[in-house]
Design a protein that fits this description.
heterodimer, A: about 325 residues, mainly alpha, 13 helices, B: about 525 residues, four-stranded mixed beta sheet
């Protein structure tokens, strides 16, 4: 069997692609940041409240900004190869530590919101596909479109007003209440409470995608011959829908989820700001404003890796869901 | 399934909050009491060391972590702090400070005059205002561990005010004197060892800064609070909601707009105050590049000053809660004078001035045009100001194009390289004009540095008065000099002053002794307490 050889070739090809992609991410972003007007020292000096020209010159030397562009790029790439993502010009701390600190909260927020959007969206889609013209189905459509069109910050603030101010059952902002004496379980519960609103805000936006997608795909499948066959065999409605139809209808949802992970990552910026969620999104946004190139590049590097990992993960899920797909 | 998860988590939340509330025992106190956690916020900080970073974000926690030689009380009265007493020599060229005995840093090491000498050098070399504040301080002698003698080449009238912890924090020499660059010293944010009333318990710049009471603080029975938590909240609207709900006990530099203030004032148990910003004096102004036409012409500047109705702006933008500025000094500054030339708004006079200056109304209805830069750091104030200026100057036939900066760096680059026509701008006075005011007018300070003399103003008379005022030790004479400076600068129309900023603090009535001195939240919170425990 030529299978293992083929598989190995596929893995090698994939690894090469990943490395090239990461290199492109770094070089492109480095150049883009370099092209933007203003440099980190100017932003930093402004933030400090002004400084002497000597101090400015000294900072430029310290961050290597006095070197030509190509030298800066080569030095940076050389450091990255050695696993050194540099030091944040703003926080003056190693970028790797800074990013690792923030990546957890963002992943928690993004995965929980994406997961709930997929589960809830799919269920709503399945539901409305069965009752295509019922008023409830239309209501689902209207609601999901409203959620999709609402600006994130508005939705977030409205949810806060509703569930934290009017009916104070959930905290307004942050990731934990900072009570260091509580044990691990109480801490998890605490984080869980803080997670509900930001995750819900982000999920409501992506809910529309999944409910529409699964509805369309479900409608297609429900008209297929094998569904009719299943019904003719006398299977219950539940078995027909969830065992026969949904497993085929869910493929586009999985594809989409993998593609969308990167998008949700960027959508997290606003949610993180509104809910003071200590994640990567706000750090990325602020690093742009501060011209903190090393931090920004570090974040983009990690995000690229996450998105790539997600794509690989999607492929695996694909194979699990659809036995027709084999390693090619 | 999802619904059930949601419901069970809601029930858990409800149970958890009920448990949390039952833990509270309500005892009201009139006398200050010890204990409790004060919950406040920060919009995010770069470092915790005020010696290398000016501003409120570092200053508010920094002034709790580090002590200074003196404290500034109401009416700018200078009180002992780490220095229990001091003598000023008759020639005003030396000041001898006697330190409190037995004062210790957070790591248990004694605070000595060596640390004072080290801190002065550190601030002088690293703080953005270091040279302005202490340029004339030549050395600090340390005859014994509890005595520090400052030697000056010229009198420094603002010296004592500048020794407040915000501006001259006492740093541990045994930590920062290790030869590493202070500006980027790792201990500025990690394992910070200070000398003030509170110690750093946890510093997570992404989420929260927690300070705990320094039990070995050199003032007995202070501070009252056990703990202070600074939650990192960047969105002003989220902060307003947190205040409304009572999630924040105290919020200085709240960034709220006047209409938020009106709303919060109606909430029972909340107080909104504008006290505690006197020493900072935030002034907004329209800066014009005086090097080039048309703004090199005084008549054009006067026309603009007559076209812009700052009283109207104060009413519209700040809900009538602030006053129009009249000059470089904030109305709350002790050296402020109202006795300056003011240009009453009058469009006809403005039009006549422009005709005289050689900018008649063209056939297309315009006289000239210019680009007005709008920085990104005070959008709530500068945005509406710029839009008003655009609209009102259009009536005169001046076409204003607004250029909103996408971020801080872009704006800084344009202004500090003098590559602009006019910009909205603003800056802090700081208590002594030498720090925050001289920088904008000194001929020698025309440099490619933001908030230096970027507009390119140079008047030898003003320069002479500035130098004299910097070393004048007679308070009345000094006031006279600053009054003259304010008059000349207003006469020359160096800047067109906008309404002063609306800076507000919001606090729960449960907070006792909320900081309200001129330095406000940037002074030590040693006397702050919580009424209910």
């Amino acid at each position: 069997m030529a299978f293992p050889g083929l598989l190995r070739a596929a893995i090698v090809r994939r690894a090469c692609n990943v490395l090239l992609l990461l290199l492109a991410v770094l070089v492109l972003n480095f150049s883009l940041i370099h092209l933007a007007p203003g440099d980190p020292v100017e932003a930093l000096v402004g933030e400090m409240g002004g400084a002497t020209p000597e101090l400015i010159a000294q900072l430029r030397v310290q961050y290597g900004l006095d070197q030509p562009f190509i030298v800066q790029l080569m030095v940076y790439l050389g450091n990255v190869v050695q696993g050194d993502l540099g030091v944040s010009t703003y926080y003056n701390r190693p970028v790797t530590a800074l990013v690792l600190e923030r990546i957890g909260p963002t992943l928690l927020l993004v995965t929980s919101s994406l997961f709930s959007a997929i589960v809830l969206g799919t269920l709503l889609g399945v539901f409305s596909a069965q009752r295509r013209r019922s008023p409830l189905s239309h209501l689902v459509t209207v609601l999901s479109l409203a959620g999709f069109s609402a600006p994130v910050f508005w939705l977030g603030i409205m949810l806060i007003l509703m569930f934290s101010v009017a009916i104070p059952i959930l905290p307004i902002s942050g990731m934990s209440s900072g009570d260091s004496s509580q044990g691990i379980w109480l801490y998890c519960l605490d984080v869980g409470q803080h997670l509900v609103l930001p995750a819900l805000t982000l999920a409501l936006i992506y809910l529309a995608f999944y409910s529409r997608l699964s509805r369309t795909s479900m409608i297609d499948v429900l008209d297929a011959d094998y569904v009719r066959t299943a019904r003719a065999k006398g299977l219950s409605q539940r078995q027909v829908i969830y065992k026969h139809a949904l497993r085929n209808a869910i493929l586009p949802v999985v594809t989409f989820a993998g593609l969308q992970f990167g998008q949700v990552l960027s959508g997290a910026v606003l949610v993180e700001t509104v809910f003071a969620w200590p994640g990567l999104g706000t750090l990325a946004y602020e690093s742009i404003l501060r011209r903190d190139a090393p931090t920004l590049l570090g974040i983009l590097f990690f995000s690229a890796m996450i998105v790539i990992a997600m794509n690989v993960f999607t492929d695996i899920v694909y194979r699990l869901v659809d036995p027709r797909i084999k390693a090619r | 399934m999802f619904y059930e998860n949601l419901r069970s988590s809601l029930i858990r939340v409800a149970v958890a909050s009920a448990v949390a509330f039952s833990g509270l025992v309500t005892v009201a106190n009139a006398e200050p009491v010890r204990g409790g956690t004060l919950k406040t916020f920060t919009s995010g900080y770069r470092t915790l060391n005020p010696a290398v970073q000016s501003g409120a974000a570092t200053g508010a926690p920094g002034s709790q972590i580090f002590a200074g030689l003196i404290q500034v009380e109401d009416n700018y009265e200078i009180q002992p702090y780490l220095a229990k007493s001091w003598e000023i020599s008759s020639d005003q060229l030396s000041v001898t400070f006697h330190l409190v005995s037995g004062a210790k840093f957070h790591d248990g090491q004694p605070i000595t005059s060596e640390d004072v000498a080290f801190s002065l050098e550190a601030v002088k070399a690293n703080h953005p205002f270091g040279a302005a504040m202490f340029g004339n301080v030549e050395s600090v002698e340390t005859p014994d561990p509890e005595t520090a003698v400052f030697r000056m080449s010229k009198p420094v009238p603002g010296l004592l005010l500048s020794l407040e912890p915000l501006l001259m924090p006492i740093l541990p020499k045994h930590v920062y004197g290790d030869g590493q660059e202070l500006k980027t010293h790792p201990r500025n944010s990690e394992n910070v060892v200070g000398s003030g009333p509170f110690k750093v318990e946890e510093n997570n710049p992404a989420e929260r800064l927690t300070l705990v009471r320094n039990d070995d603080f050199f003032i007995p029975d202070r501070p009252y609070l056990d703990k202070i938590t600074f939650a990192v909240v960047k969105d002003p609207l989220t902060r307003v909601l947190m205040m409304e709900k009572g999630d924040l006990d105290y919020a200085a530099f709240s960034g709220i707009r006047p209409n938020d203030a009106t709303r919060l004032e109606k909430v029972t148990g909340l107080t909104v105050t504008t006290e505690g910003y006197g020493a900072l004096g935030y002034v907004h102004y329209l800066e014009m590049n005086l090097r080039n036409k048309p703004f090199s012409d005084h008549k054009v500047r006067e026309a603009l000053a007559r076209a812009i109705d700052t009283g109207f702006l104060a009413k519209v933008i700040f809900g009538g809660r602030t006053e129009p500025g009249t000059g470089p000094l904030h109305t709350g500054n002790p050296f402020y004078t109202a006795d300056v030339t003011r240009h009453e708004p009058d469009l006809d006079t403005a039009a006549a001035l422009l005709d005289e200056a050689g900018y008649p109304l063209g056939a297309d209805g315009t006289r000239f045009g210019f680009t007005l830069d709008v920085p990104s750091w005070a959008p709530a104030a500068h945005g509406p100001m710029a839009e008003y200026i655009q609209a009102t100057l259009a009536k005169l036939g001046i076409k204003v194009e607004l250029r909103k900066a996408p971020d801080f760096g872009t704006w800084v680059k344009r202004i500090s390289s003098f590559d602009y026509e006019a910009t909205m701008n603003g800056s802090f006075n700081y208590p002594d004009p030498v720090i925050g005011v001289h920088r904008h007018f000194d001929c020698e300070n025309i440099r490619n540095v933001i908030w230096a003399n970027t507009e390119g103003y140079c008047n030898k008379d003003v320069d002479a008065m500035l130098s004299a005022a910097a070393t004048e030790t007679d308070l009345e004479k000094r006031k006279g000099l600053y009054a003259d400076i304010q008059k000349t600068v207003a006469e020359d129309l160096v800047f067109i002053y906008m309404p002063q900023d609306f800076s507000a603090t919001v606090y729960r009535d449960d907070v006792g002794n909320p900081p309200s001195t001129p330095f406000g939240a940037l002074a030590p919170w040693t006397d702050v307490y919580l009424k209910t425990q």
